[in-house]
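U., I forgot to send this yesterday:
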Amino acid sequence: MKRFLLGIHMVLLSSAPLFCQEQQANTIQGTVSFVTSSNIYVKFSSTDAIAVDDVLQVNETDCLKVTVKSSSSVVCVPINDCELQTGDTVVYALPAVAPVAEVIEDNVDESIPAEVAVTETLAPKKESLYKEYITGRVSLASYNLFSDVRDDNQRILGRVSMNANHIGDGKFSVEAFLSYQNLITVADNYSGRTDIFNIYNLNVTYDVTPTLWAAIGRKINPKASVFGANDGLQLEKYFGKLYVGGIVGFRPDVFDYGFNSDLFQYGGYVGVETTNSDFRSTTTVGAMEQTNQGATDRRYLFFQHSSTIAKDLGLFVSSELDLFNPDGGARLTNLYTSLRYRFSRYANIMVSYDSRKRIIYYETFQSQIDQILDDDLARQGFRARLNLKPIKYIWLGGSYSKRFASDQQNKSDNYFGYLTFANIPKVGGRLNGSYNLNQNNYLTSNIIAVRYSRSLFKDLLYAEFYYRNAKYDYDNQRTPYKQDYYGTNLNFNFARTWQFALSGEYSQFEEENNIRVYAQLTKRFRSKKNN
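Result:
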């Protein structure tokens, strides 16, 4: 009997902290990556736990409402008159889980030895290394164009996307992104498909260990997104900060994006990740061999690097080097680099440069090789953007971009500026004005736009109204082409997981009148298994 009382005493001591320990709510930290006149983009390491319509906080104050999400970032609209800048930190508070106290039965069977009873009571429950988390989205949209001088155009688009991570707290995960489009009315001379079904992503992933996964199906690998979609097998293994991956399968058909067994491909990549409070960096290099009916179609190397230093300086570099050329030599087909720096909460700047050449698939485009090589010029571009916040509730900024080629053809200069009032006194809402000037070899365009937006009825309705005036002055025409646009966007949020969007635009040019109507019904779902 003494042994039995001793066992009960030990159980009570071990379970007491469960009653008195105060559970702290976990949070996920994100960084504002981009700010526009109406939306704010936030980058996370993962958005699995975040759903559309969730609220993000700054200093424990609700500031942003999520409207769109991807695997690593979300698009938000500001609430409660919050103002944020690129580089600011926001948090998402995970729902707290109430502690569960262990119940001790009074009528314990004394036929069970005390040592066994104590051992079974104190034995911790074995928890899975993986947690189920399922998110998805189903939408049905209608696009309609009505014109008094052109052919009307109506089409219906349905989309289904789902990320089912670690189903049943197990090692299997499923990804899917499917799209169906039906062209209801088309021009008389249209000869293409009117029913279009595309599978952009459909695969099953199995976590062999926490550091090794394998996927089969159609998948775009985020570590090697330059490879595009692959129909086949992919593997990735971590060794501490280092990781290696392999891809083997088929690339989608170049014309209808369907499965094509003639387009066999294989490749691999290696990389390193570094993450701490002051520095985050991911660097990946890889190689890919793409074939067509067994013959080499394209062979290339790629390099990709992204890093953030102290949340103020961000660098991104991506390049592709084609190695296969029947005449010998290599071609730098893609180089892109961008640098972002935040001077303070009130000013940030971004500059970028890119150089691109047309990618040549030597087997797929045999009849066009000579023409492509004759025009093998690098299309280059430079862009700079500056955002400023001189006083509270006011943002202003501008950008300049230049496109050019080595033969000075197809060059263009683009100038853009904007001014935003984030919170209009006594009225509320956001007011944005912008101006865009583009000059190229054959055209000069001037576009002026004014846009007003706000949330209504406790964020159940988001409304936006805009006017845009465009003037296109072609070198080969005497009279400029002028057009006025009047439009509105309405987003209704109801039952938390349902959203109905309705957009309308009226455009006028001389005797021509066009009306565009867009409607979309969206259902989002999220299932999180709690243990």
